[in-house]
UniProtKB/TrEMBL annotation:
GO annotation, biological process: phosphorelay signal transduction system; regulation of DNA-templated transcription
Keyword Nucleotide-binding: yes
Organism the protein comes from: Paenimyroides tangerinum
Residue ranges of domain Response regulatory in the record: 3-119
The protein's name: Sigma-54-dependent Fis family transcriptional regulator
SMART domains (alphabetical): AAA, REC
């Protein structure tokens, strides 16, 4: 259910807006406030998913409500409405953090589309906030080897800029971890990090997923939908496995990077976006370019900064630290005490050929914790960690 607050001093307009929204969806729960002060009190006491707020009101005008509400609950999207609209007012409300500005009388289709898009954005912001509370713990860069220290130094230097980054390396090495660290340490950290697994989305849907679509653009497009680039506005988009993206989709991404605009499928209106792009791949993109599967101009747009993540075989000195990290993490997940690995067990694990990299090591550690003795021994490793 989406809770929507309408702040409007004219009772007739409140009733009309409430009726329109209630008839649009059973999932909309509408609350009304007759002036700015009453609306602000309701915002303080309740959690709303969207506020539709008039600008010219007695006691407290809409701009004041917007400013005060953003101080206490900055995640709530505001749609401002006014019968005295002018460009300066619209610009000012957007500067103060409004999601959109609509003149009275509002166009019905535009109002409903704006409400849907604002609610979609609120969902993404809330989810991103929830995930960010876990991110520092879940995306720690474990290791003190020379390759890892070099990557940490690069992240610290590059994160503060808007430079595009291409992360390369085999599967299971932690490329997404590098992307999360880049975003966390950047000035965009308070805005969303939107992840897109390009390999997991069918080629016929990738354009809609990235850029959105309008109602009726194709059979299943029953309503307007914002794409990942719009969702990541002012934040970061992480294009994982970009080497698997189709050539037509690559062309659209290239345009988004060149012009900072996207066009929803089925629309003819460009949408301005401010997005930092981080991409990752386990493929040799130079080889993909030579074989005609990847655009060279897109490669040069993405690879402003190149970060190569090493395989685990190239950072064996980090294995003891990783084992300790996974042991503690697995114990926390299962509500048990961490097991101890003997020095001989750790030494033997350092000798293994880790073709599956860190992901494989994590699985092996979990297996040894479950099947091994009270202290995981060399014999346990020989018995349960075999390839």
């Amino acid at each position: 259910m989406s809770k929507i607050l309408i702040i409007e001093d004219e009772a007739a307009i409140r009733r009309v807006l409430s009726k329109i929204l209630s008839e649009e969806s059973d999932d909309y729960v509408v609350t009304e406030a007759e002036d700015g002060l009453q609306g602000l009190e309701k915002i303080k006491l309740e959690d709303f998913d969207l506020v539709i707020c008039d600008i010219k009101m007695p006691k407290m005008d809409g701009e004041e409500v917007l400013q005060e509400a953003k101080k206490i609950k900055p995640e709530i999207p505001f749609v401002m409405i006014s019968g005295h609209g002018d460009l300066e007012t619209a610009v000012n409300t957007m500067r103060l953090g409004a999601f959109d500005y609509i003149s009275k009388p509002p166009d019905l289709n535009r109002l409903l589309n704006t409400v849907r898009n604002a609610l979609d954005k609120k969902t993404l912001v809330v989810e991103n906030t929830r995930l960010k509370k876990k991110v520092s713990k879940n995306y720690q860069m474990i290791g003190e080897s020379e390759p890892i220290e070099h990557i940490k130094e690069m992240i610290d230097k590059v994160a503060q800029t808007d430079a595009r980054v291409l992360i390369t390396g085999p599967n299971g090495t932690g490329k997404e971890l590098v992307a999360h660290n880049l975003h966390e340490k950047s000035p965009r950290a308070d805005f969303p990090l939107i992840e897109v697994n390009c390999a997991a989305i069918p080629s016929e849907l990738i354009e809609s997923e990235l850029f959105g679509h309008v109602k009726g653009a194709f059979t299943s497009a029953v309503k307007d939908r914002a794409g990942k680039f719009e969702a990541a506005n002012k934040g970061t988009i992480f294009l994982d496995e970009i080497g698997d993206m189709s050539l037509p989709a690559q062309a659209k991404v290239l345009r988004a990077l060149q012009e900072s605009v996207v066009t929803r499928v089925g629309a003819d209106k460009d949408i301005k976006v401010d997005v930092r792009v981080i991409a990752a791949t386990n493929k040799d993109l130079r080889k993909e370019i030579d074989e005609g599967r990847f655009r060279e101009d897109l490669y040069h747009r993405l690879a402003v900064i190149l970060i190569k993540v090493p395989g685990l075989n190239d950072r064996r000195s980090d294995i003891p630290l990783l084992i300790n990290h996974f042991t503690i993490k697995i114990a926390e997940e299962n509500g048990t005490s961490p097991k101890v690995f003997s020095k001989e067990a750790i030494a033997l694990l350092q000798e293994y050929d880790w073709t599956g990299n860190i992901r494989e090591l994590r699985n092996v550690v979990e297996r040894l914790i479950i099947l091994g003795g009270k202290e995981v021994s060399k014999a346990d490793v020989q018995m349960f960690a075999s390839k």
